[in-house]
Design brief:
The chain is α+β, with helices and mostly antiparallel strands. It has one domain (3-93). The chain is built from two helices and six strands. It has helices at residues 13-18, 80-93; strands at residues 3-9, 31-40, 52-53, 56-57, 61-71, 76-79. The strands form two sheets. Strands 1, 2, 5 and 6 form a four-stranded mixed sheet that branches. It is elongated. The structure holds zinc ion. Residues 23, 25-26, 28, 71, 73-74 line the site of zinc ion.
């Protein structure tokens, strides 16, 4: 498999790096985890990814990296979006 492009995307970097996040299930602090995924530009999944990498439209396999959160107690992984929604929910309850 030849990888033709690499992309690293961090959704809401301020939210991800500057704030503390806790597990929605058990309340433990979450660990940031880098998640990598290789996607082919002709696959069904390709529509969820941006193959326009560094001013170059990648044809073929590209590796996409992003950040997710991991709870070492529950062994569960959460997307940034899930944690964002959970934080908003907690804020709302206060
Ligand atoms: Zn947990």
């Amino acid at each position: 498999m030849k990888i033709k492009g690499y992309s690293f995307k961090c959704e809401s970097p301020f939210f991800v790096y500057c704030k503390k996040h806790y597990c929605p299930c058990c309340g433990q602090p979450l660990i940031r985890k880098k998640v990598s995924k290789i996607v082919h530009s002709d696959s069904d999944e390709a529509k969820n990814y941006d193959f326009d990498i560094a001013d170059n439209i990648v044809k073929g396999y590209a590796k996409f990296n992003h950040i997710e959160f991991f709870c070492s107690v529950c062994k569960k992984q959460y997307t940034v979006k899930e944690i964002k929604e959970n934080d908003a929910f907690i804020q709302h309850r206060k």
